[in-house]
Fold this protein.
Amino acid sequence: MRADQFIENVQIFNSYFKRFENGNAAVLDGKFIYIGKLGAESFEAAEIIDGQGRYMIPGLIDIHLHIESSMITPKAFSHAIIRNGVTTIVPEPHEMANVFGLDGVKEMIKASQDCAADMFYAIPSSVPATSMETTGGSIEIEDIDELLRTERIICLGEIMNYVDVITDPDCKTNQILKHITANYPHLIIEGHVPKLLDLDLHQMIVSGVDSDHTHQTIEGMEARISAGMFIELQEKSMTPEVINYLIQHDVSEHFCFVTDDVMPDSFQKRGHLNHIVRKAIKMGLEPEKAIYASTFTPAKRMRMHDRGVIAPGKIADFVLLADLNELTISQVFKSGRKVYDMNEAYEPSASERAFPQHFYESVKLDALTASDFRVSSAEADGKYIGRVMMVKDGSTFVEEHQAEVEVQGGQLLWQESGYGLIATFERYGKNGNRAYGLIGGDTIRRGAVATTYSHDNHNLLVVGHNPADMMLAANEVIANQGGFCAVEDGEILASLKLPIGGILTEEPLEQTAQEVERLLNAMKALGYRHYNPIMSISTHSLAVSPALKITDFGLIDVNKGKVIPLLIGQAPN
């Protein structure tokens, strides 16, 4: 029998039995044609690969992620994940969709076409994430129809606005869900349902949402699995309790591992989905179960029946491991073609403009002045109780705290309050909205940080302790057409340019990771005490993540789904 490749002397992972078996494999036209004990003499192979006893596993599959979280283009992202053994992904470009709408989704898909890794896209379902923010674009029902008709779409991306789904039958998200279930009944619908239990959880499932990738507890995970919901475990859910539960209970068919958001520095240092698999193994999960949860079950969830397993007729995406427990990757093959070898040079191609010109001109804000960081108040002079966004290390959730603040001469004396100022400015040239709040906790203690990398609306967000530094940081970001800037005492400590939509760079991962590390060091030098300062600050405007956030509409009570005032009332005497 003719074969393009014959891989001999390997420990092949059999997904159906969740075990490794010593054997050989033959590949023809990018697919496996034989797995078993027959030797090379039984095949007319163009290439014979000596596996040297290494472990052969399917290419890893990540079914929930956002390329934009790594701040690089699909081309650079593909180059980076391939060396980490990830051969298939399901990206949801809802960040680009919030900036450019349908155009953003289409251009991300276009930029993915010639990548080594397969990218099957999820349609962003919640753009904007809420009705309480201004974005550059939106995704409407007609846009969903257009994408399903013209693009390689595999699912409807995470339904984020769970509050409206439960409480408002006529909301936009429910209209989308009804349209999908009526017209595309077989389309997979992904979910985002943090902390929901009992009736609320079941209402989401009835609406068509049957997965969750948010932070899991044992109680929440059991409630979801028992109701038929599929669990997508990201790293923050990998607590000892959760991993022990996976070890002790037969739930292999009901979960997989995903990355969701991977920052460039972490990506460069630790890897991607392979890092999560390695971590699960180190936490006690059997390697076979960890590999199964990053290959077979994600493929099954997305009905990608042609991959995720080493078996006859399946796409020959596979990884050769030198060490199983450490998940040490020797070589990666995509459709039978070697795309990575640890002993060979693996350099990214030169950066180039992959997007239309207007994608590089999306920040439509004039330079700000110090007066833009004075907070006007219609209240009479006196002391008031104000709401404070309290940042807490260990979570991107932001709690509400109440503190005394003074109004004098029509101005909020925020600099005398003991807290910093958080301000957001609509940057698409639509309405000129702006909003202000107080911020404290594990955030910066001095200087300022500004960014357009602010989920999900990506308006200009500025946090600081004096107007001069805030102005300088904001104007650096505006001049760069997006990105980050950290400032102290009139000096720029770090500046990260993200000129594509204000959220991406064309630079390779290695360079982006270095710049991000400089930014992180600067933020920590300003007093940020968080395990992930960039993710923390960039989600201060994420109005679907508990509990008190800010958009250009104002402060948002996430649990109630409404805009609330900064000042509550007069302080008691």
About this structure: The first strand starts at residue 2 and ends at 14.
